[in-house]
TrEMBL record, chain B:
GO terms for molecular function: copper ion binding; cytochrome-c oxidase activity. Its main location: other. The keyword Acetylation does not apply. PROSITE patterns: COX2, COX2_CUA. Gene3D superfamilies: Cupredoxins - blue copper proteins. Keywords: Copper, Membrane, Metal-binding, Transmembrane, Transmembrane helix. InterPro entries: Ba3_CcO_II_C (IPR034214), CcO_II-like_C (IPR002429), Copper_CuA (IPR001505), Cupredoxin (IPR008972), NosZ/Cyto_c_oxidase_sub2 (IPR051403). The keyword RNA-binding does not apply. The chain crosses the membrane at residues 12-29. PANTHER family: CYTOCHROME C OXIDASE SUBUNIT II, NITROUS-OXIDE REDUCTASE. This is Cytochrome c oxidase subunit 2. It comes from the Bacteria.
């Protein structure tokens, strides 16, 4: 469909700014594997510290890229399916807030005033602009949600008896989850941390801050995942050459995510004090609940791919796998999706292990964890985001993709690098190798008395994988900006592949409305989080003053 | 509501698999007494680092984490002892991981964490801080000596 110039311009900015920032984000990913393997035995390289780089890596890749993309992809999806563009002023306003916030936080991180990692656990204190910038980025991403909600309501008035397109349901569910979970982190940042970091309040309840963070922190991973899920349900079957096996399964899965994405955050705090075992166990069980929609998705997508293979003439039980368009450079989206999904098999399995309550004590905060989540957020999420960014840009600008062959191979390279990296990290984690640690100085330095020779093979594997991924990432970035620099060949329009459903069930009213689901979501949330919040308030002692990263003595407060 | 037959089967099998997981989890908890840390209300008595010998085979360790050390840094206990670890932090968030014994806790300012573990075999057990706690994080560690030749 034809879209306005302003719409295109905003989408282009929202897609390309995070890809440009990825240069910093991916570079620091590579650097960490090099420090960790003991090849670099220093606190910093090229004037950027290890923990500063780790913060940049996490914030840029996991928050900035994902949030910008979710907004841009949401704009594209809502516009394409509802045939109506969002309000331009609101689009600009949201973009300005997100960009301003990103610039503030980037400045704080690059200046070395916010090396507190993307979890920013107090009482480590960051520069106030780091917190304010993050908050602005989040608030900026709320703005389009309200706009889309109005667009949807208007559309629904006219199309009351029509099934709402799956992609629209998915986008609205995703941003509902996002809005609910970010309320907690907004409270943490604006009420607890900003006044405290400025010295207006003296102390902060650390256990409470951690609980609020993880209220947001786990739902955040579904905010990363759902755009990829939307693509897997509504685009992948089409580009594979088939149909979506079941439309209703997609709706069920998405609504179940609405219920179970948020009230599970305490499973990140199994090892925390001040929260009872009962609360932890209950949220652990709810986490198992969230695996149900993932299993439904795995089945539906596999069935859709099998159908696609058979449509392409495949025979036998597994013949369909061979017939899929693995290396079709005119259909590069498929390679991004399929590589992501292969990684997600391992990401999902390791995730269930982490969720498994006492089993978590084996792996909590070890290198196993980054091994796990790189096969989710840096697997299906990252590959779907970058593949779709290039696809949308090329289509809307009318510029042909630069280095098409290489673009098609990048996800395979990335996947192989990721498998090696994650194998190394997971193996190391099982041997007690900590995450978020500059191992090169101590544990991986043969001259140190802390040297651990059993972590040499694991960190070396992770570094080898890191080098492969870095190469793949840079090739993609060259292809992306190469495409931007090319000459326009066509008028350019917003086109998104649309999968038909193989089992296109009749409209089921329950799966075509939000109200009952949102009510159920709130009930589960209150049940899960009231005891957790009571716990951290009741069992916590004094609040903590502010600490800089380089000094055990707390900072003085203005109120003293 | 018409659900495909194969799909119905897969939804039920998904739930059955998860049911099996829950069962295994509960079974393992009962059989191996594995659990997540215990929840205690804050008490500043635990903020003084020390090793308490309750009887020949029972010890209490009050471990206090700070930037960038654990106190006590060396813990000596006889083989076969059951040890209650109480962990807290004097400043930022730290981690307390004895990987060989699956002891895994966060040390948090204003909170007390607790777990119990039995040391059946002699040896030196590393305690590694596995939560980022500032520029000295990678050096933060301690040891439990269980009937080690040098043991006091």
């Amino acid at each position: 469909m034809q879209v306005s110039k302003t719409f295109k311009r905003i989408i282009f900015l929202e897609l390309s700014i995070p890809v440009a920032l990825l240069i910093i984000g991916i570079y620091h990913g590579l650097m960490q594997t090099i420090y960790r393997a003991g090849v670099l035995q220093d606190t910093s390289f090229a004037k950027l510290g290890y923990y500063q780089g780790l913060t940049l890596h996490g914030v840029i890749n996991a928050i900035v890229l994902t949030t910008f993309f979710a907004v841009a992809f949401g704009h594209a999806t809502m516009t394409y399916y509802l045939k109506q563009e969002p309000n331009k002023k609101l689009m600009w306003f949201s973009f300005a807030l997100m960009l301003g916030g990103t610039l503030m936080a980037s400045w704080a991180m690059l200046a070395g005033k916010a090396s507190v990692l993307y979890t920013f656990y107090p009482p480590l204190k960051a520069h106030p602009l780091f917190y304010i910038g993050t908050a602005l980025l989040i608030v900026g991403s709320w703005v389009p949600f309200f706009n889309w909600a109005v667009m949807y309501t208007q559309w629904k008035k006219v199309h009351a008896e029509t099934k709402t397109p799956l992609a629209v349901i998915g986008t609205l569910i995703n941003f509902t989850i996002w809005f609910v979970c970010t309320l907690a982190v907004a409270y943490e940042v604006l009420v607890l941390l900003v006044p405290w970091s400025l010295g207006w309040t003296t102390t902060v309840n650390v256990a409470l801050a951690r609980t609020l963070f993880w209220f947001f922190g786990h739902a955040l991973v579904y905010f990363w995942l759902l755009p990829a899920y939307i693509m897997f349900y509504t685009i992948l079957p089409k580009v594979a050459g088939g149909k979506l096996y079941s439309d209703l399964a997609g709706r069920m899965a998405l609504f179940l995510f609405l219920l179970f994405s948020v009230p599970v955050g305490v499973h990140h705090q199994y090892s925390d004090p001040s929260i009872t075992q009962g609360v932890k166990f209950f949220q652990g069980m709810l986490t198992y609940g969230v695996t149900i929609p993932s299993f439904i998705t795995a089945f539906t997508l596999a069935a859709s791919l099998e159908y696609a293979g058979r449509q392409r003439g495949a025979k036998g039980l597994f013949g369909w796998m061979k017939k899929l368009p693995w290396f079709d450079e005119n259909n590069f989206l498929f390679s991004y999706f399929i590589c992501g999904l292969i990684l997600f098999i391992f990401g999902g399995v390791t995730g269930i292990i982490n969720a498994s309550y006492s089993l978590n004590t084996v792996v909590h905060n070890t290198a196993w964890l980054p091994g796990h989540f790189h096969m989710t957020v840096a697997g299906p999420v990252f590959l779907a985001i970058v593949g779709m960014s290039l696809y949308l840009y090329s289509g809307m600008s009318g510029k042909p993709v630069f280095m098409r062959k290489i673009v098609t191979i990048v996800p395979y390279l990335w996947m192989m690098g990721m498998l090696v990296f994650s194998f190394g990290m997971s193996w190391g984690g099982l041997r007690g190798e900590p995450r978020r640690t500059n191992l090169g100085i101590s544990y991986l330095n043969p001259k140190s008395e802390l040297f651990r020779s059993d972590w040499v093979p694991t960190t070396t594997l992770a570094m080898m994988g890191g080098i492969v991924m870095f190469t793949a990432g840079m090739l993609f970035i060259i292809a992306f900006f190469g495409t931007i620099l090319r000459k326009r060949k066509a008028a350019g329009s917003l086109e998104i592949p649309v999968s038909e459903a193989y089992h296109d069930e009749k409209r089921v009213p329950l799966f075509d409305q939000f109200k009952p689901w949102i009510i159920a979501m709130i009930i589960i949330l209150v049940l899960a989080y009231t005891p957790a919040l009571i716990n951290v308030n009741k069992n916590s002692g004094p609040g903590a003053p502010r600490f800089n990263i380089d000094n055990p003595t707390p900072l003085a407060s203005d109120n003293k | 509501m018409a659900i495909d037959k194969i799909e119905k089967r897969i939804i039920f099998s998904s739930m059955a698999v998860m049911g099996l997981f829950v069962f295994s989890l509960l079974y393992a908890m009962k059989k191996y007494k594995s659990n997540v840390p215990e929840c205690l209300p804050y008490d500043k008595a635990y903020a003084e680092p020390k090793v308490n010998k309750l009887d020949d085979k029972t010890y209490q360790v009050f471990s206090v984490a700070s930037m960038w050390q654990f106190q006590p840094a060396e813990i000596y206990i006889p083989v076969g002892s059951e040890v209650d670890f109480y962990v807290t932090s004097k400043d930022v968030v730290h981690g307390f991981n004895i990987a060989q014994k699956n002891v895994n806790m966060m040390a948090v300012y204003g909170s007390i964490n607790k777990t119990t573990v039995k040391f059946d075999k002699p040896g030196v057990y590393d305690i590694v801080c596995h939560e980022y706690c500032g520029v000295g994080h990678q050096n933060m560690h301690a040891q439990v000596y269980v009937n080690y030749p040098d043991a006091k």
